[in-house]
# Entry
Amino acid sequence: MLKKNQRKQKASISTPDKNNRFPIIDALRGVALLGMFAYHLSFDLNHFGVIRQNFYEHPFWTGSRTLILSSFLLLVGVSLVLANRESIRWKAVWRRFGQVAGCAALVSVGSYLMYPKSWIYFGVLHHIAAASLLGLIFLRFKWVNLVLGLALIGLGASLKLALFDTPTLQWIGLMTRKPVTEDYVPMLPWFGVVLLGMFLGELFLSKNFAKMKAWRPKNRVSRLFTLAGRHSLLLYMAHQPVFIGALYLLL
# Structure
């Protein structure tokens, strides 16, 4: 009987739920969404002239963007590890890649219509789509991902080469100047943040898997964050049209 119970407990830990989700990761993603909403609403208020802020140079705004973006990309890395912990779930990988890549294409088209001189050709969704496939190579690297992640961040932040100013190579990073675009998330240094997330995912997976899987939201706020995180792609695509449309009607 004891061995039977142990087998059941082991199976409950190792076998993913039918939707293979971790509510705690959704909740954390929901918190990151709230930060992004606040940042983008402030950006839109500035665009409409309600406030006057320098979003491209002021340390508060550049730091806020870095923090919010890092939060999302860390969670991308953590989710990659958790979703593919037994083996790579190729069907789910390609389905998610298609969703994110399709939304990235819509962002490019929409931004071109609004900002033809600074349209988004490699923003956060483009990066997440690429990192979701590239990251699969690093699934079993564990501690190596910590070293590689820090190295890529340092390399991307410090090395600048004129070669990468070429339009076809700008998605890599390492440019000598920031390109004229509304959202720019190149592979370097930002893929390093995804690798750090993968390291954290492995760390939690080996030590706190059961607790992470068992966590459930306890109040309305945490349930709201969890729900938002579960539908993060939809909310990402919808929030700016809603903000801009509402401000256009009000102002």
